Amino acid sequence: MAKLKVKRIDAGIQTAVINKEDANQIGLKNGGRINILNEESGRSITAFIQITDNIIGKGTIGLSSGFISQLDADDNKELAVRAADRPISLEYIRKKMDNGKLTENEINTIISDITNDVLSAGETTAFITAVYINGLDTDEVEYLTRSMVKSGEQLKFNTHPIVDKHSIGGVPGNKITLLVVPIIAAAGLKIPKTSSRAITGAGGTADLMEALAPVEFKAADIERMTEKVGGVIVWGGATNIAPADDKIIVHEFPLKIDARGIMIASVMAKKIACGAEIVVIDIPVGAEAKVKDMDDARRLARQFIEIGERFKVKVECAITFGDTPIGRGIGVNLEVREALIALEGNVEQNPFTQKSLTMAGIAFEMAGRVEKGEGYRFAEEILNSGKALAKMKEIIAIQGGNPNVTSNDILPGKYSFNVNAKDSGYIVGIKNRALITIARTAGAPADKGAGIYIHKLLGERVEKGETIYTIYADKEWRLGKALAEARKYMPVAVEGMLLERITSLN
Amino acid sequence: MAKLKVKRIDAGIQTAVINKEDANQIGLKNGGRINILNEESGRSITAFIQITDNIIGKGTIGLSSGFISQLDADDNKELAVRAADRPISLEYIRKKMDNGKLTENEINTIISDITNDVLSAGETTAFITAVYINGLDTDEVEYLTRSMVKSGEQLKFNTHPIVDKHSIGGVPGNKITLLVVPIIAAAGLKIPKTSSRAITGAGGTADLMEALAPVEFKAADIERMTEKVGGVIVWGGATNIAPADDKIIVHEFPLKIDARGIMIASVMAKKIACGAEIVVIDIPVGAEAKVKDMDDARRLARQFIEIGERFKVKVECAITFGDTPIGRGIGVNLEVREALIALEGNVEQNPFTQKSLTMAGIAFEMAGRVEKGEGYRFAEEILNSGKALAKMKEIIAIQGGNPNVTSNDILPGKYSFNVNAKDSGYIVGIKNRALITIARTAGAPADKGAGIYIHKLLGERVEKGETIYTIYADKEWRLGKALAEARKYMPVAVEGMLLERITSLN
Fold first, then answer.
1. For position A425, what pLDDT does the model report?
2. Distance of CA B219 to the CA centre of its chain
3. CATH number for position A416
4. ipTM beyond 0.95?
5. Cβ-based burial of A258 (10 A; exposed 0-12, middle 13-18, buried ≥19)
6. Which of B343, B321, B354, B337 is nearest to B171 (CA)?
7. Confidence label for A496 from pLDDT (cuts 50, 70 and 90)
8. Residue among B365, B405, B454 nearest B178 (CA)
9. Residue A301 — very low, low, confident or very high, per pLDDT cuts 50/70/90?
């Protein structure tokens, strides 16, 4: 233990900074955990430390204004600093590393410590890695789901049933929420949809909706708006719904891992916390999708359904074709425009509209609105009738956007380049990951106009010289870089196209 | 990409701080990796970011003076900031998470990225966790060892053979290096011993030696001193020998994990980098030791020996009894005093002296100094003759300490408490972990006089009222806390001692 005086350091950091000599005296290592007590106010906090040998002098402790106010302290105030106890959750993480089965209490403790920043980034990553390798059984996924639900707020509604949908990510152009939500709400069902922003993609649903209306709302606003117009499309990150999930995703992202048990719990926790009673889950299967084959997709679907049963939530899964973009547009404005065009009644039969109607149709059947097998047609009627467009305008309006927006108002970037077919043939393959990379290089999702418009979808005929796809960008230099990526990856394969001709020298 | 102006923030932190709006624009998440380029000087660095919404304004980037000088920039200098590429080492870590076998190149890349802070704490922990769970085969341990050796400096000597020793840690009072090094050096062999400071223990060997002489030296000093007097006892952390190991240990520590393959590589890399040709490894086995049973100890010993063979280093392992403290003293001064007493010729036969002579004896046999079976006696002669004491004084002197020090100069703490036997009997069990906890609570290793002196060793007879052990502290309040721990843990069991008497109420 040492008595150290406060030095205010405002660099937006969440660690305390102390001198090397004090650290040695207390017995602390860089990144270690300390307990800081203001003996006068009785307030204490736990923090991680950074050790310095020059910035903070011996006898002082560098703290952010946030920490100082939590401690009810002030500049030069003397605080008692000691090594903090090792949180018991580390024992439970260790247990999972040793392939043990965690109890509900153990999982609650881990999730609570992750949510409250008691665990360091490294410690949280150790948990995720252990789950990725050793897995979670159904009981553990149930505990994890419940724990995540309890980590934040839960929506409550007066009308029922509450419907929700989720797509396992990774497929470009997947704007189906912009059709599914207004179709379902137009039929009188409630769908309070929270979505994410793009992490690795060219545009998350929240990014798309933001082109039409604000998406950052508190839980009470989501309840109120949903009760009033039947649905919303908001950014989940602005709410306090299942915040533990967000804390975990941050650490999964750099490793690009998908710890299956955590993923199932994350999805289900968000749905349960949003009050969902009927959930349709879209599982794209494909070589470049998260789920590679049908067997794995069926296994995942059964797990979702079983967890749903344990929480009395009806779950159905749609296993979908994942090796194609969902529709023609990739990137914020291109996708929003495409969705508005469909809502405005120009419904082209393609992966985007078919998948949207399929998902909405399953929800209608699950809710008992229509007989089994009638959902798709019912959803299609709502879309064609203009009721979905009217509902979308209500949703845009209640979220604070302009309800008079039309597809003509949403424009792609002013710089563009057409990629044309060098030979005639059929589109036989589209590389989803390459498309995402090109769209991101062009500026998506930060640049709203950036992205790709696909003129020729999978299976369509293209004649020599016709445009296969167009790259759009808001900034000229970004277009150039995206084009270089396109030349490198050649994301669309046309049957009969000669890629390269190598002549033998013999 | 964004152009941001430098704002100097000196809080000893290794991250760049940028505004939330700029982060969204560039497409960065908190903890993400950025590349910062000074277009004028051409200098660039990669750093992790912390995102703030108030400390650093839009259009600026908070950087430490260290980063600013690396970039050859200055306050208000405009820098180009973009999201950095994902290091390829993350793919290799992912491969180990998926239980793949890593190539030498892949391991080199991971270790290089850990050493150069390219990987975050979370990413490094993911690697350690994956190795802990999925293991490394002998090839991988060899690659890892070589990679760690190459991560830093290597000692070179003109005389041969170079001897080294290592004890797998966790056993309290393990001061044997203070006898082994002078005994071996007194026989004319070279032993450049680098040791660690206590992490979880009551005193690392470097902490002990520091009571006698400075322990922080550069590689060239270690070479020079070893050539001159035959041996040194220094702190490895002050050198640049196998620094990758130190970077890894920091992340293993909070999880208390011992990723076996990493541990073997760490030990062997330090020895190889120190130029060792003959290595004796002490593997304590016991219920509270790192290695729990003989089979596991033998397996570990074979792995050490095999890795040794691959690097042309002769390795022998001594599997030792790990469920007792090594000698009577635990804590810096108590251990140093005990070692000096033995060097001064008062050699009591106990675990400390027996283990020290055994280890030195094995080294003598391996070096061909004596016949097989003669090593222990040869080591004992050197100790009894006073040659080891004379050599220790030379080592103390060359490291800058006072060679005239005697065991009477090294004093335990001025506050003490005797724990006496409530009944007569034999010492039948000693809880090592409890002893360490009590010694640390008493102030060890930061308080030099703090610790425990054990009057009655395992198997010894104690009469009712006799002192079993004494707790020492430099500070009175710490003694009180240590005593409370002692009452809680009761670390020494006496046969026949009634622990508690519970009377039935029936």
1. 85
2. 18
3. 3.90.1170.30
4. no
5. middle
6. B321
7. low
8. B405
9. very high
C-beta of residue A328 within 8 angstroms of C-beta of residue A439? no
Domain with A228 in it: what CATH number?
Answer: 3.40.1030.10
Q: Is A419 on the interface with B (CB under 8 A)?
A: no
Q: What Rg, from alpha-carbon coordinates, does chain B have? A: 26
For testing contact with chain A, the best of B8, B10, B65, B119 (most A CBs within 10 A): B10
Q: Which of A27, A34, A61 is nearest to A48 (CA)?
A: A34
> What average pLDDT does range A237-263 have in this prediction?
84
Q: What string of DSSP letters covers B348-416?
A: --SHHHHHHHHHHHHHHHHTTSS-TT-HHHHHHHHHHHTHHHHHHHHHHHHTTS-TT--GGGS---SEE
Q: What is the DSSP letter of B190?
A: B
Q: How many domains does chain B have?
A: 4
Same domain, A9 and A71: yes
Kindly state whether residues B94 and B79 are assigned to the same domain.
no
Alpha carbon separation from A100 to A59, A87, A91, A261 (Å, rounded): 44, 18, 11, 15
How confident is the model over A56-101, as pLDDT tens digits? 888 999 888 888 988 999 999 999 998 888 899 999 999 999 999 9
Which one of B372, B398, B424 terminates a domain? B398
CA distance A355 to A362: 11
Q: In this structure, is residue B506 part of a structural domain?
A: no
Does residue A498 have a pLDDT over 50?
no
Of the ranges A292-296, A494-498, B385-389, which one carries the lowest mean pLDDT score?
A494-498
Mutation target for A interface from B17, B97, B253, B476: give the one with most A CBs within 10 A.
B97
Structure tokens at B399: 């490291």
Q: Quick check: is B254 in a domain?
A: no
pLDDT tens track for A397-451: 999 999 999 999 999 999 999 999 988 888 888 999 899 989 998 999 889 999 9
Q: What is the DSSP letter of A84?
A: P
How far apart are alpha carbons A502 and A496 in whole angstroms? 16
**Is residue B482 situated within a structural domain?**
yes
Could you tell me if A79 and A97 lie in one domain?
Answer: no
Mean pLDDT of A303-323: 93
Q: Among residues B83, B100, B116, which one ends one of the domains?
A: B83
Do A16 and A95 have their domain in common? no
Q: Are residues B26 and B128 in the same domain?
A: no
Domain containing residue B25: CATH number: 2.40.40.20
Determine the average pLDDT of the residues in B223-233. Answer: 97
Residues 6+ apart with CB under 8 A from B206: B195, B196, B197, B215, B233, B234, B235, B236, B237
- The answer to whether A134 faces chain B, any CB pair under 8 Å, is yes
Domain that includes residue A110, residue range: 89-135
Burial of B502 (0-12, 13-18, 19+ CB in 10 A): exposed
Q: What's the mean pLDDT when you consider all of chain B? A: 90
Find the catalytic residue in B117, B139, B258, B409.
Answer: B258
Put simply, the chain A residues between 47 and 76 with a CB less than 8 A from any chain B CB are 50-52, 54-56, 62
Q: Are residues B230 and B322 in the same domain?
A: yes
Using a CB-CB distance cutoff of 8 angstroms, which residues of chain B are in contact with residue A121? 31, 120-122, 125
Two tokens, residue A101: 């089965």
Domain identity same for A292 and A376: yes
Name residue A72's amino acid. Answer: D
Task: Note whether residue A152 is domain-resident.
Answer: no
Q: Are residues A295 and A355 in the same domain?
A: yes
Q: Are strands A163-167 and A60-63 parallel, antiparallel or unpaired?
A: unpaired
8 Å CB contact between A289 and A326: no
